[in-house]
């Protein structure tokens, strides 16, 4: 019996909802969504990035950074993870890390790069 309730293509919408929930303060619920997605689909990196974001928004930077670094260890070109890591380091006032991460972006048109630029330009 399969534990999959949603198709992978439908999961993206669920992840987007969880990101929005995090942004609106529904961190516990959003974290549950990210975790459940990872339970069923451990290869969906966006859910791991989202889980990291759910820690960053409550100033649990160590856990968020750990998750993002795991993503980057497996895929050094993941600009979304790098963008959220810039956000985390910026909030921690770690300008040296922000500067070094900014030069590591692979695609200057990626949403991760745009997130990072908007953070440091604010």
**CA-CA gap between termini:** 49 Å
From the spread of the alpha carbons, the general shape counts as: globular
**Secondary-structure element sequence?**
HHHHHHH
Number of structurally distinct domains? 1
Task: Say how many strands there are.
Answer: 0
Could you say what the CATH topology is called?
Serine Threonine Protein Phosphatase 5, Tetratricopeptide repeat
CATH architecture label: Alpha Horseshoe
What this model shows, in words?
With 122 residues, the protein is mainly alpha-helical. The protein has a single domain, classed as Serine Threonine Protein Phosphatase 5, Tetratricopeptide repeat. The mean pLDDT is 93.
Spell out the key features of this protein.
Serine Threonine Protein Phosphatase 5, Tetratricopeptide repeat, mainly alpha, 71% helix
What's the arrangement of secondary structure elements?
Blueprint: H1 8-23, H2 27-40, H3 45-56, H4 61-74, H5 79-91, H6 95-102, H7 111-120
Short summary:
The chain has 122 residues and is mainly alpha-helical.
